[in-house]
Amino acid sequence: SEMESDSELFDTDDLFMEVSSQREPETQQSSIDASEAVREVHGGVVDDDVEYVTPAQLLSEMKAAWQNECGAPCLLPHVFDIVDPLLEQITEIENAISRPNNKDKPSVPMHQMEIARIQYILNDYMRRRLHKIEEHARLVMREHTARVTNGQKELLGPKELTFAHRFASAETRLYHSAFLGKLPAPLQKIPVPALNLEHLRCFAKVLKDDVEDVVASDLIEAHSEVVIQLPEDSIHCISFASVKDHIENEKILMM
Length: 255
Known about the structure:
This protein is mostly helical. It contains 8 helices and 5 strands, in the order H-H-H-H-H-H-H-E-E-E-E-H-E. Helix 4 (80-97) packs antiparallel against helix 5. Keywords: DNA replication, Nucleus.
């Protein structure tokens, strides 16, 4: 698929691998070193005792979140805790490769191309989420509120929540001016139908060895269920509702 072909490009030309395996002298710190460039985000030295998440790890998590969002029929909890630092790190690396000592290096065009690919993933991730919010603005706001109340991971980011409120308000004004205002007061309501995820199937790959079995509807006998085992590295065509929790817990990857 198009998504898979784009994702594969990162396997052979990873921008976030260090160009050199050895630290360069202080007089040459302006040379391209993605790891060091990211460590300078706050203009200081990173404490060795502080756990440091590498750009490569962030990119790997971002690719998985993007792939899940592309394959999921509904909105998944946001990962802006990955998006925001990844954007900051891309900015730092862009600054690093634009330095005078680096601009003429033959590797710079490859780094620029890789940055463009990463930006495509980020843009497409946010674009798909906005599209799902526009389709079901009231539903996602209701689910977001329920998740916050129950102490679950938030469905929407702060800016997405603001967008959903504004979109729903604009849609309500449009409906009232077009036809709802002409109906009796008891009928001037906009329904919020829930998505039926039981009949939506997806391809999913099991990433870990401790994934619990799931129960899904039997496609052969009506009104019956089957227990599906999920061993590590296995691939299934399965009801999305059955594996939704495992996807959110990063135990299953959408394909």
